[in-house]
Amino acid sequence: MTHRMLLPFGAAPVFTPIRQTRVLPGFPLALGYTLVYLSLMVLIPLSAVFIKSASLSWPEFWAVVSEPRVVATYRLSFGAALLAAAINAVFGLMLAWALVRYEFPGRKLIDALVDLPFALPTAVAGIALTALYAGNGWIGAWLEPLGIKVAFTPLGVLVALIFIGVPFVVRTVQPILEDLETELEEAAASLGASRRQTFARVLLPVLLPALLTGFALAFARAVGEYGSVIFIAGNIPMVSEITPLIIITKLEQYDYVGATAVAVVMLVFSFIMLLAINLLQAWSAKRTGRNR
Amino acid sequence: MAVAGVLHGRIDARRYEANAATRESPWVRRLILGAALTFFALFLLMPLIAVFAEALRKGWLTYVTALADPDALAAVRLTLLTTAIAVPLNLVFGVTAAWSIAKFEFRGKRLLTTLIDLPFSVSPVIAGLIFVLLFGAHGWFGAWLFAHDIQIVFAVPGLVLATVFVTFPFIARELIPLMEAQGREEEEAAVVLGANGFQVFWRVTLPNIKWGLLYGVILCNARAMGEFGAVSVVSGHIRGQTNTLPLHVEILYNEYQFAAAFAVASLLALLALVTLGLKSLVEWKARQHAPADA
User: Fold this and answer.
1) Secondary structure of A198-239 in the HEC alphabet?
2) Which of B114, B129, B276 sits opposite A251 (nearest CB)?
3) What value does the mean pLDDT take over residues A73-101?
4) Most buried among A128, A155, B199, B269, by the most CB within 10 A?
């Protein structure tokens, strides 16, 4: 690998064998096991969704996935997820900024607790948020007199999706901020830029790929989220029902084909997001010179 | 996010605040800090406190009674059993996948890495659905399984499969960047000196990756114990038999036994806190063992 990189561009490595000799043992066994396990646990089960949905003709498939009640769930799931990811991008950036740049009491503890949504089971988060934002809850009791109802409304879905998305933005932006050389800002300041100009013209362009990656990760996760949402959403058809819940509802009515058709729509979206996130991460790595 | 990233180490924030070029005016600082801390308190801290406050609202007696309930204990046992099977399976996979991806060159490596991450982008509900489609009564293998009196969905094997699926990438994605960063010179030296494959892994690779491995196991374990959506689809919700802890919380909550639901939930919240504590500890250890130039 190293000697090949020393060659000028376009030059063929003369003495490098086409098949690299492998010094380390275990390659066929390790790769073989990896592929078999991946196929058995992930690829074959996932393909079941596509094969099952193929039993529907195209008009039948379309009729299921464009049913008004199902379309209403897309609007809520995708809309609330997009809004939650945007809110997380703004406040996640501020939180990452505060954790890296400011010294304040409890900084280490807050830094550790940012990962809470990764560690706390979603069902626990769901009932805790419901208790907080219900009319008699600590926060709900303040909001209700102002005419803002959160629990059992689409707003509740938004709150749950904000909760689960917090770590994505913070944890993608934080390492980039930590690695940032202060020379950049010093140069900008010495050339007469105001702090706001430095942020907008120097810092934001460097942070943007990571910020967008965090946004995309939070968005992708929020669209598929189930556990933390169903308790606080109230699950009223056409109003506060999310797409994953429609799949469960159809399953409980033994409508396997219908459930599978909606699942295909969600999976296709997930694959597109996965591709987008990969491209964003490659862009981010190029911009900042980091590998990951 | 990963141990590999943590090795860079946290830099003292004071050096930014002492530098006029990297410092905000006091009111901007106050605004950013205020907004960040309010956001943190509203969305992270208060839900955590609410779990414990609600759990103890009716007093210690109700709390202890809820935890000592036979159905709750059965749920604890089932959660431990499922995790004890799922985590080692993904541990072995994580190590073999990282070994082949990080130590060897082959075509399709990037695709393989992406496919390993796939379960993270699939909704947990779909993770449950796929196993119902395969092994449910009307699934591909449903009739065969019924004829041979084997139950997968609505039984422990289904719970294990769903848990393995949702926690699939945790350990592999922790190890791949770590082992890639370490290169293969040390292992190659060991082979040249006459070590066999097992010795190379046990004496050279494992000591180098132990903190990353532990980190992955901790995260994998937390998710395995707390998974709700996927497990909910394949469980069948039979009390005392196929109810894991998160599902038991849901049942109690839907029966309006709020104090009991939060009591069981507080166990899971404690698990989350222990997870975060161990995670910070491993990050700290990994930083101590990192080379000084990192």
Assistant:
1) HHHHHHHHHHHHHHHHHHHHHHHHHHHCCHHHHHHHCCCCCC
2) B129
3) 95
4) A128
Kindly report the three-state secondary structure assignment for every residue of A90-116: HHHHHHHHHHHHCCCCCHHHHHHHCCH
Cα(B224)–Cα(B162) distance, integer angstroms: 9
Q: Looking at the partner chain, which of B29, B37, B133 has a beta carbon nearest the beta carbon of A256?
A: B133
At A9, the pLDDT band (50, 70, 90 cuts) reads very low
Pick from B19, B54, B187: which is nearest to A131 by CB? B54
∠ CA B58-B251-A151, rounded to 5°: 75
Contacts of A176 (CB under 8 A, 6+ apart): A206, A207, A210, A284, A288, A290
* pLDDT classification of B11: cutoffs 50, 70, 90: low
Q: Is the pLDDT of residue A65 over 70?
A: yes
Does the CB of B288 have a partner CB in chain A at under 8 Å? no
Measured CA to CA, the distance from residue B182 to residue B184 in angstroms comes to 7
DSSP-based three-state secondary structure for A11:
coil
Residue A267: CA atoms inside 13 Å, Cβ hemisphere, count?
A: 22
Q: Are A161 and A225 in contact (CB under 8 A)?
A: yes
Q: Are A45 and A179 in contact (CB under 8 A)?
A: no
**Confidence class of residue A290 from pLDDT cuts 50, 70 and 90?**
low
Four-point Cα dihedral A15, A17, A18, A22, nearest 10: -140
Residues in B touching A42 (Cβ below 8 Å): 115, 118-119, 165, 168
Residue in chain B lying closest to A161 (CA)? B43
Q: How many CB atoms lie within 10 A of CB A44?
A: 13
Distance CA B56, CA A263 (A): 40
Tell me if B96 sits within 8 A of B175, measured CB to CB: no
